[in-house]
Design goal:
The protein is of the alpha+beta class and 783 residues long. It has 25 helices and eight strands. Among the domains are: 2-67; 121-278, no CATH class; 550-605, SH3 type barrels (Roll); 611-696, 2-Layer Sandwich (Alpha-Beta Plaits), CATH 3.30.70.100; 717-726 and 741-783, no CATH class. The strands form two sheets. It has a five-stranded antiparallel β-sheet with strand order 4-3-2-1-5. Strands 6-8-7 form a three-stranded antiparallel β-sheet, with helices on one face. α22 (625-640) crosses α23.
Length: 783
């Protein structure tokens, strides 16, 4: 019994194919009875537990068999299509749509031919009466429009004259006023035609054809008002777009003709043909109207491809750094092809979705134009900001002289990124307006919200890190500025510079980690890897670790600061840059030395606390040392009365004779000065002591030699035989010398070898000078 009921239920609730094959073979009464019996049987099955369980099992098994069959039939449905498969599918769909559109165009042409030759059944009497009424309404509306337009031209002429004598703000107001007056003329003409149509109709009614004409007139002429506001072919001073009168008249002529063709053709002629003749004829005329407009637009584009390209290139030549000009120069060569593709795309969209094609095209085009215009304006502002830079007030620049440079280093980079984002936003907006992609839908989805949120968070982290770095750097710069606040010591200057470097590195690491975390990267493995990498670097780069550790201890012990004159690693110079790893020294010759701390065994700082100038004055042996000391004190007093008096810390410390040299007695003194001023004080003291000793007649000896000839027991020294040098006269190569006049009889003849040696010495030599200064033992003045 249970199986019989299940079989009956299966026959009733079979698949649609089975039901369609069974039901037509039974009469209607039997069908109704069978449905009632099946319902009753189903109720009994549901009441019986065993039957209900059996029914559930049968349904589950049937579902499994159906799923297996569908899987067997479409075994490739669950597999994702490859890129080649997707391209093939897209190419096939495009070809099918193109064939379909071509078929529709051919069918529309055939319908027009048939309508003009055979002609459908049309009540021409009724059609002619309606046409006469339509012509009357159109004539009255257009006549009223031309009369009001003639009156408005006088007003426009006065506004144009006033515009020539006003600024840009008043010019904008006058353009808006002229557009409002022009639109008011259209509305008044439309209302006049509407009233005449009501007067012409029966019992205050209006024919739908007249209503269509009036609506088309209003829409078309309001569109022309916008064109006249932008182009203004008659009054150049009321023109919003900067162009010549001939160019404005040309574009207004063709654009207004296209608007009239499309407007009256699609909004007036096609609906009338649909209602009076047939829908097929109306659709055919619509296709012909759109194709005609497409051909006219393509001809206009091809006719102006060169002038527009030249204008686009001229923009880039005026300012080579203008980003917009570069983009225009790039598109100048093939802009007309892009325009033709756009026009063809409009036609394809209209042909594929004729129900809402006009609305879709207008809205999409308007949105695209708005997006492009806003993008161009934004890019122009960004380009101006990049080229012009930022200029801070003088008060801020005085306190923070480096802030403007930092801002001009960061802000242009940020603006370049913003410019790329603007381009992407324009492309996305255009694609969204043409429904190429549903970006807003993706953003509204969970994945889109998460992705956009992560990107925004990452951008905010980077921006916040930049702001913090600028704030800290500006504060350090403010503290280091000697013209603002208190004077900063060398120690503070060094520590602030080191803090700025360390803070920059730490902030960069934190910002990178947070940015990666915000965009969804798991930074835990990165931190672990950084720890392992740091350990490996610690073992492998021991010199680097030694540099850092030595530099840290040098800073803790305050061994050197920026501006100190030190000796480190065998190099002496001024400390210009000090980091945790190295020190930069500039020596007296201007050479810059970068010394890592690992090579620094000892630091000699000449700028700690105080300094000494060691003055070692050499005098002749015959001088009185006490007098020399007095002269040194006198020179020190003169030094203290000069401009370096504030640099001297203590009185002169004369330490006495420090050395007995070969030619001089050295007297040493010390002058205690401020650190770093010992060299300037020493140079000034040396100049003064030289003048003082010269004035006192104290000899400052120079290295010389005294020749002692010896004496006999009586105290008499033999005279040195001196002969003047003569030229060589012997042809055999033998040198002879004439007898020199003797200054006394006691002079003896010098040996021949001495004479030859004297002859070989050039005149004016050091030896000749010594010989001429040897005293004669017989001359009482010389003795």
């Amino acid at each position: 019994m249970v199986l019989f009921r299940l079989l009956l239920l299966w026959l009733v609730f079979a698949t649609p194919i089975q039901a369609q094959s069974l039901l037509p073979s039974t009469p209607g009464a039997e069908s109704n009875d069978t449905e009632q019996d099946a319902a009753a049987t189903l109720a009994e099955i549901l009441r019986d537990d065993a039957a209900r369980e059996a029914l559930i099992e049968q349904l589950e098994s049937a579902a499994e068999e159906s799923g297996a069959a569908e899987t067997a039939q479409s075994d490739d449905t669950g597999e994702p299509m490859s890129l080649a498969r997707q391209l093939a599918e897209y190419t096939r769909d495009t070809a099918e749509e193109a064939i379909e559109i071509g078929s529709e165009i051919a069918a529309a042409t055939q319908v027009v031919v048939e309508a003009l030759t055979d002609g459908p059944g049309v009540d021409w009497a009724e059609f002619s009466g309606a046409a006469i009424a339509l012509v009357l309404v159109g004539a009255v509306t257009l006549a009223l429009f031309f009369v009001l337009r003639a009156i408005g031209l006088r007003i426009f002429r006065r506004l144009a004259q006033r515009r020539a004598q006003s600024g840009w703000l008043m010019a904008l107001v006058l353009i808006v006023v002229a557009a409002v007056i022009d639109a008011l003329i259209i509305v008044l003409a439309w209302q006049g035609g509407y009233a005449f149509a009501l007067f012409l109709g029966e019992a205050g009614s209006m024919d739908f054809r007249q209503s269509m004409f009036l609506n088309a007139f209003l829409i078309i002429e309001i569109t022309k008002v916008i064109l006249r506001a932008v182009l203004s072919p008659r009054f150049g001073s009321l023109r919003f777009a900067p162009m010549r009168d001939e160019t404005a008249a040309y574009w207004y002529f063709w654009s207004s003709r296209l608007v009239s063709l499309l407007g009256y053709g699609l909004l007036l002629v096609v609906p009338i043909l649909n209602a009076a003749v047939s829908n097929a004829l109306g659709q055919a005329v619509a296709v012909l109207v759109v194709i005609t407009a497409l051909l006219i637009a393509v001809l206009i584009v091809m006719q102006n491809r060169r002038p527009v390209a030249q204008a686009m290139r001229a923009r880039s030549q005026t300012d080579p750094n203008d980003t917009l000009g570069k983009a225009l120069a790039f598109f100048a060569g093939f802009w007309h092809w892009l325009a033709i593709i756009y026009l063809v795309a409009l036609f394809v969209i209209w042909a594929s979705r004729p129900a809402d094609a006009l609305q879709f095209m207008l809205v999409s085009t308007l949105q695209s134009v708005v997006a492009v215009v806003l993008g161009i304006a934004a890019m122009a502002l960004i380009a101006r900001a990049i080229t012009g830079g930022l200029h801070l007030p003088d008060e801020v620049s005085k306190k923070l002289p480096l802030l403007e440079g930092r801002l001009n280093a960061f802000v242009p980079s940020i603006l370049k990124v913003v410019r790329v984002l603007v381009v992407l936003a324009v492309l996305i907006a255009v694609a969204q307006s043409w429904q190429v992609l549903d970006f807003l839908g993706w953003v509204a989805s969970e994945v889109g919200r998460n992705t956009v949120g992560r990107l925004v968070s990452a951008a905010l982290v980077v921006l916040f890190a930049m702001v913090i770095w600028l704030a800290v750097s500006s504060f350090i710069e403010y503290r280091l500025n000697p013209g603002v606040g208190r004077i900063v010591t060398a120690r503070e200057r060094t520590l602030l510079a080191l803090f700025r470097n360390a803070f920059t590195i730490g902030l960069l690491i934190i910002a990178v980690m947070l940015t990666l975390s915000e965009i969804g990267v798991n930074i835990a493995p990165l931190l672990a890897g950084a720890g392992v990498l740091g350990l490996a670097i610690g073992f492998g780069a021991q010199k680097l670790v030694q540099d850092i550790i030595t530099g840290a201890f040098i800073q803790f012990e305050n061994a050197m600061n920026e501006g100190d004159f030190v000796t480190a690693g065998g190099i002496s110079g001024m400390v210009e840059k000090l980091t945790i790893r190295s020190v930069g020294l500039r020596d007296a010759e201007g050479t810059y030395h970068l010394i890592p701390f690992s090579s620094v065994d000892m630091v000699s700082n000449f700028m700690k606390g105080f300094a000494y100038h060691i003055a070692e004055v050499g005098v002749a042996y015959r001088e009185n040392i006490a007098e020399v000391k007095e002269h040194m004190k006198k020179a020190f007093d003169i030094l203290q009365s000069g401009e370096l008096a504030d640099e001297i810390l203590e009185p002169l410390d004369i330490q006495g004779v420090s050395a007995l040299g070969d030619s001089a007695v050295v007297v040493r003194a010390r002058i205690k000065t401020k650190p770093g001023m010992q060299w300037a004080v020493g140079r000034a003291y040396n100049e003064i002591i030289k003048d003082v000793l010269d004035e006192a007649g104290v000899e400052i000896p120079y290295p010389h030699m005294t020749i002692y000839m010896g004496q006999d027991k009586d105290g008499r020294a033999p005279a040195l035989n001196l002969r003047p040098l003569e030229t060589e006269t012997s042809q055999e190569g033998q040198e002879t010398a004439s007898d020199a006049p003797r200054r006394s009889d006691s002079t003896t003849r010098a040996p021949s070898d001495s004479t030859e040696a004297a002859n070989r010495r050039p005149r004016g030599s050091r030896t000749d000078e010594i010989e001429r200064t040897i005293p004669d033992s017989d001359d009482p003045d010389e003795n």
